[in-house]
Amino acid sequence: MWSPEDGVPTHTSEITMICQVISRYFWNWFSHRNIAQLRLTLSFKAFSVSQHPGPDTDVPHFDVDIYAQNCAQLPIILPLLDAFSSCDLTNVTTLSFATNLFSNRTLDSNVQHFLLSLPSIETLETTLDSLKQLLPLPDNISAASDGYGDYICRPVFPFLRIVKIYELGIKTLPSDASTIFLSFLTWRTHAGVPIQTLDLTTLKLFAKMEFLEEVEGLKVIWKKGEDIEEYVCGSGNAQRLHFEF
Q: In whole angstroms, how far apart are CA 179 and each of 57, 73, 86, 129, 183?
């Protein structure tokens, strides 16, 4: 039997036991509340799954943080994500996704399974670096069984239409920003679920984003003073994508 004093669980039986405990608590919380927003945070040696905080911070919300003793043990605790992905999350339409990982660390199958357990996501709130973490995912991933013993494939977030980027503490976008944005938008188009709106309203930095002009039909929105501006890419006025937030 595992206890917190024993350190990070290493045996399959320990992982299964902990998953069952967390899953029961998680299922009980969600089954009595209509929760449409969720947050997943991955760091060097921890992950967090929480209910997206609303405007009223005094209202109780779900928050689970799981830590490893060191960075090398992150793969050991990631199977605990199954405690959440095994629950019914079809009501969740907004995901806040943040990562702070080593550059050589990619999203493993446990994270992919968690993302696939969110089939109704319409809005993704994330950082540029976290968006980059999603790029190695294939257009379609094997999902749960169809009930007849066969596995079906579907894109991650099949209803995703809005991406909202937030960046904290930076003045300019990184040099590879154009590659990340265009690769992500192309990935979604190839998967058959193109992004409709890129929301930059929370950014406060200097950015030249004329490269988005080639993504025809994409609506970009940003904040200028107190006003919300918008531009549809491919309209022939790419200089509007040169921002000074």
A: 37, 31, 34, 12, 6
| pLDDT tens-digit map of 65-108 | 988 888 888 888 888 888 888 888 899 999 999 998 877 778 88
Give the contacts of 216 (CB within 8 A, at least 6 positions apart): 233, 234
Nearest to 229 by CA among 112, 141, 239: 239
Spatial contact of 83 and 18, defined as CB atoms under 8 Å apart: yes
Sort strands 242-244 and 206-208 into parallel, antiparallel or unpaired. Answer: antiparallel
* Neighbour count for residue 191 (Cβ, 10 Å): 18
According to DSSP H, which parts of 117-235 are helical? 128-134, 177-190
Supply 63's token pair.
């928050």
What is the β-pairing status of strands 141-145 and 151-154?
Answer: antiparallel
- Residues shown for the chain: 245
Q: For residue range 28-62, list pLDDT tens digits in order.
A: 887 777 888 999 999 998 999 998 655 555 666 78
Give backbone dihedrals phi and psi of 179, rounded to 5 degrees, phi first: -65, -45
Q: Is 68 helix (H, G, I), strand (E, B) or coil?
A: coil
